[in-house]
């Protein structure tokens, strides 16, 4: 989806955001977005780290039975 936007599309989105939010709010919005993205990635990594241990436990239970 994002691959089809291209550079002109991104520039247009940034100009619209600048008009709507103003230059003083954009750094705050960007910072909040960055923190949210960082927390999302951390949560995803935690979930992915938990899955292999669960799969290993299930495999061990199947071998024992």
TrEMBL record:
GO terms for molecular function: protein transmembrane transporter activity. It is found in: Cell membrane. InterPro entries: TatA/B/E, TatA/E. One of its GO terms (cellular component) is TAT protein transport complex. The chain crosses the membrane at residues 6-23. Part of the twin-arginine translocation (Tat) system that transports large folded proteins containing a characteristic twin-arginine motif in their signal peptide across membranes. TatA could form the protein-conducting channel of the Tat system. It is a single-pass membrane protein. It comes from the Bacteria. The keyword Protein transport applies. It holds the Pfam family TatA_B_E. Belongs to the TatA/E family. Keywords: Cell membrane, Membrane, Protein transport, Translocation, Transmembrane, Transmembrane helix, Transport. NCBIfam families: PRK14861.1, tatAE. Gene3D superfamilies: 1.20.5.3310. GO terms for biological process: protein transport by the Tat complex. This is Sec-independent protein translocase protein TatA. Forms a complex with TatC.
């Amino acid at each position: 989806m994002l691959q089809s936007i291209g550079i002109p599309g991104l520039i247009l989105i940034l100009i619209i955001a600048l008009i709507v939010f103003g230059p003083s709010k954009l750094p705050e919005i960007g910072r909040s977005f960055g923190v949210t993205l960082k927390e999302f990635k951390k949560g995803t990594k935690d979930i992915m780290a938990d899955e292999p241990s669960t799969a290993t436990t299930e495999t061990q239970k199947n071998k024992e039975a």
